[in-house]
Amino acid sequence: MADDSDQEKTEEPTSKRLEDAQKQGQVARSRELNTFAMLLASTLMFLLWGKAMGLALIKLMQREFQLSRETIFDVASVLAHFKQVMFDGFMIVAPLLAVLVVTAILAPLALGGWVFSWEAIAPKFDKMDPFKGLARLFAVHGLIELGKALLKFLLIASVSWVLYSRYIGELSGLNAEPLEPALTHGLMIIVDCLLILTASLIVVVAVDVPFQLWEHSKKVEK
Q1: Domain total for the chain?
Q2: Which residues touch 216 (CB under 8 Å, ≥6 apart)?
Q3: pTM of this prediction?
Q4: Would you say residue 47 lies in a domain?
Q5: pLDDT digits (tens, 9 = 90+) for 14-64
Q6: How far is CA 201 from CA 81, 97, 108, 188, in A?
């Protein structure tokens, strides 16, 4: 019985702290996980929709960027024409934009859930103190974030250099290919680069997600 009561005493404050933290908008978040999700969604969309989107944009430009003399000398007609072209172009890329917006909204749910808190967006004047800001910058958390940012930069820079060395010859030769094969070839290069960059970020996500969960639990226990 004593063990049960002790266990209840230890569990209840923890759940209450979690609820209080959520009310204040404090949940585990990983920017690296969000970036990874956005890159993965972009890669899949380019893989599935990239060629159709590129061909549709080319046809749009070939069809709409030929204006009659009467239209060119009529300001209202020119504006109306280009407004329609902009709308048609937006509708072509709209599926890609919609997937990215949905991914940006849903990605945080994978870790800490979706929480809206007025306390989180309320102004906190103590955070505007420059001396406290410098102290936070050189605190352990700031140094860890700086280290992660440097490691991520070195990783992405290294992968980008490898990709540049691998594909610069193919990219330079695209202008010698016919339009449609060049478009397909260019899109395949983009998809390959996105896939490799996304795969490289798995290392960053594998480090950042456990760290963010651990750091959030430590903050809640304080």
Answers
A1: 1
A2: 21, 26, 27, 28, 112
A3: 0.66
A4: yes
A5: 665 555 555 555 666 778 888 888 889 988 888 888 888 888 888 888 887
A6: 43, 22, 17, 20
